[in-house]
Write a structure and sequence with these properties.
3 helices; mainly beta; 24 strands
């Protein structure tokens, strides 16, 4: 468990499993504990305190058992070799971040208060023995007689009822709720956990991996492709919806908090059509960094560093001297430009079949006067008179 100094409570837990690949039966637990909005509690907690997940970090790399990676051992512990004993050597690890819910179900800014109850007291320090710490995964549900509870002063429940007016304008729901502007609370709706990510360039796209975790309004993408700032990327949702966003910046984690990645500014110049630029102080400039500046095309990276001569991936477009070039470290923890209302969205359904020969059909069985294809009967409309009404089943 990790301590947050703001409230002096513990708001993070790391989970480890000794294996190279997490077993299938553990995937549901991992998905629950990494999904913002999910709720859990400790089975042995006498107060049955509820905790809401607000973020997390997916599998860490280079986590091994027994290996003296950091010089902690005195030589009496044999180093671990993945070739000799792969199952005992590798450890899958992930971390979840959470907040305590109060008695009304509202999220607080606190984690586990160990002065009230300490879950670490249920297990031995080495995890041995039969005493285990059990975690219950919960889903929010309302009983027949349970009142609706608001999580904010501006929350409300709306219900529309049919009207007799035959000229009523009906607006059919085209998709689930999609944010117009990204923030820490809704980034998981726009870029869901485990959704596939691709880099889009016109009509072509390149697979870039998948969304592994969220941290504040940032996302971590696991994959083999470098995602550069300014790139347009697409997120494929499970329901077929595809959302798009542009990359705004790269970050790294420092004690679990996102901070901007390394940036180097250098003064120099370039010649139009050349694939090199010259800088006075190349210190800190590394291959793979993204470079911006006068005459530097978008999505340009460093391919070689030879003293003050920097080879870049795209040709310079204009002459420059005494220009400032900026070099960024490319990471897989990225921030998206928040104004995603400017981006297109591909809906996860269609209402017409095209046969590729000029013939199209939007009717079931393609018959005369049969129902047209749509996405269901869920609809909403405008109303001039509204009020509050509470109903419950008898």
């Amino acid at each position: 468990m990790s301590l947050t100094t703001d409230t002096n409570t513990y708001d993070r837990i790391a989970f480890g499993y000794r294996a190279q690949v997490l077993p299938t039966e553990e995937l549901g637990f991992k998905a629950h504990m990494l999904s913002p909005g999910k709720v859990f509690r400790f089975a042995d907690d006498p107060n049955s305190t509820l905790y809401k997940i607000v973020g997390g970090q997916d599998e860490w790399n280079n986590v091994h058992n027994y290996a003296d990676n950091f010089g902690f051992f005195d030589g009496s512990c044999e180093n671990c070799s993945a070739d000799e004993n792969p199952e005992s050597c590798k450890r899958i690890t992930f971390r979840t971040k959470f907040r305590r819910l109060d008695d009304l179900g509202n999220e607080t800014n606190e984690g586990i208060d160990i002065s009230v109850w300490d879950p670490r007291g249920q297990v031995k320090f080495d995890g041995s023995g039969n005493n285990r710490l059990s975690i219950e995964l919960l889903e929010v549900a309302l009983t027949d007689n349970q009142p609706l509870r608001s999580n904010g002063t501006r929350a409300a429940v709306f219900e529309t009822e049919p009207k007799e007016d035959v000229g009523l304008d009906i607006y059919y729901e085209a998709s689930n709720s999609i944010p117009l502007k990204i923030n820490a609370q809704n980034v998981s709706m726009y870029a869901p956990l485990n959704s596939s990510v691709s880099i889009v360039d016109g009509d072509t796209s390149v697979d870039a991996g998948y969304v592994a975790s969220h941290n504040e309004d940032k996302i971590t993408v696991y994959g083999n492709a470098d995602i550069l700032r300014g790139s347009t990327i697409a997120f494929s949702h499970d329901n077929g919806t595809v959302t798009y966003a542009t990359v705004g910046a790269h970050f790294v984690e420092s004690d679990g908090v996102p901070v901007p990645s390394i940036r180097v500014d250098a003064t120099g110049g370039g010649t139009a059509t050349a694939t090199t630029i010259t800088v006075a102080s190349p210190g800190g400039i590394l291959v793979g960094m993204q470079v911006t500046g006068p005459g530097i095309p978008p999505l340009t990276t460093v391919e070689a560093v030879n003293g003050g001569v920097i080879t870049i991936s795209n040709a310079v477009t204009e002459n420059s001297s005494s220009a400032t070039f900026r070099f960024y470290t490319v990471t897989n923890l990225i921030a998206l430009n928040p104004n995603v209302w400017q981006q297109p969205i591909d809906l996860g359904w269609f209402n017409c079949y095209s046969f590729g020969n000029g013939v199209e059909s939007d009717r079931i069985r393609d018959d005369f006067n049969t129902p047209t294809i749509d996405n269901g009967v869920s609809a909403s409309t405008t109303i001039t008179e509204y009020g509050e009404e509470r109903r419950k089943s008898s």
